[in-house]
Amino acid sequence: MPLPPDRLLRAYRQMKTIREFEERLHVEIQTGEIPGFTHLYSGQEAVAVGVCEHLGDADWIASTHRGHGHCIAKGCDVTGMMLEIYGRRDGLCKGKGGSMHIADMSKGMLGANAIVGGGPPIAVGAAIACKARRDGKVAVAFGGDGSCNQGTVFEAMNLAVVLKAPAIFVFEDNGYSEHTGADYAVGSRDIAGRARGFGMPAETCDGSDFFAVHAAMARALELARNGGGPSTIEAKTTRFFGHFEGDPMLYRAKDEVARHRETMDCLRIFRARVTTEGLLDDAALDAVDAEVMGLIDRSVAAARSAAPPTAADLLTDVYVSY
Question: Which numeric CATH code is attached to 5-301?
Fold first, then answer.
């Protein structure tokens, strides 16, 4: 069934928020005020939103080092995220996690993860818990094309099949594992096909098309929620920036990013479809654009003026007491 206008507007708002959050970070990181490495998600917004629009707070996701988009799509507070990335005491993780370790259990966000392939074992653990509780909830593991070669991922996928866990593996194939092309590093050149080898259904979709991702996720979710076990989605996408901020991207053709911004921009593709089909109009989308820019401006201003953690905060939140 086609999504109603309010759901389409929400999806656009989420994608636009991710885009402007990342584009602003690309500028702010150059001021030297943001500590640590930053890996931007621009270009992949349709994947995070296409997946997470199906999920509630009680469903779980495990993210990657490129996790800002997943956090926003799952409902994490945007200002709290910006505070966290700036290393401020009032950030989502009290300024101790930074860009690569944002988590919010209240939103089912198990955390970004600096270890490539570190998320799937965590997500499968959450999926096993969902199955044990019989609550109909699922866990999603996001990963890039580089993570598909990790042994941790293979073991997690096999275990999910063996235990018929409600886990969904989403591989965002943006063409590069850091600086190495997926066409070289993935021997089969078919991530979905490899997943099928574990005994689960898998499909490939256009990660630049929100509607294609949303439809693929609907099929995977129906299987997982109804006891059918795990499945895999391989979303073909791109990233508009380097592997990390400061990456000169010498491994990419000189015109590649500009060409992809013209032909693979998921926001542009979404807007063209919904306006052409009369599902939304430009005025409504423009209003969202203005709202999002205001939110990003306010979040940056709050982060710049907020206090960092104190020395007394150093040993807090190290252990959890049950």
Answer: 3.40.50.970
Residues with Cβ < 8 Å from 225, sequence gap 6 or more? 136, 137, 138, 166
Are 169 and 157 a contacting pair, CB within 8 Å? yes
Contact in structure between 144 and 64 (CB atoms under 8 Å): yes
- Angle at the Cα of 264 from the Cα atoms of 143 and 6, rounded to 5 degrees: 80
| Total Cβ atoms within 10 A of residue 220 | 28
Please, are residues 149 and 120 in contact by the beta-carbon 8 Å criterion? Answer: no
Residue 138 near residue 224, CB atoms below 8 Å: yes
For the chain, domain boundaries: 5-301
Q: Which residues contact 8 (CB under 8 A, 6 or more apart)?
A: 274, 279, 280
Return the H-helix or E-strand segment holding 173: strand 167-173
Phi-psi region of 200 (alpha: psi -120 to 50; beta: other; left: phi over 0): beta
- Amino acid letter, 293: M
- Give the rounded distance of the alpha carbon of 76 from its chain centre: 12
Contact between 65 and 90 (Cβ < 8 Å): no
pLDDT tens for each residue of the chain, 322 residues long: 679 999 999 999 999 999 999 999 999 999 999 998 899 999 999 999 999 999 999 999 999 999 999 999 999 999 999 999 999 999 999 999 999 999 999 999 999 999 999 999 999 999 999 999 999 999 999 999 988 898 999 999 999 999 999 999 999 999 888 888 888 888 888 999 999 999 999 999 999 999 999 999 999 999 999 999 999 999 999 999 999 898 899 999 999 999 999 999 999 999 999 999 999 999 999 999 999 999 999 999 999 999 999 999 988 988 877 6
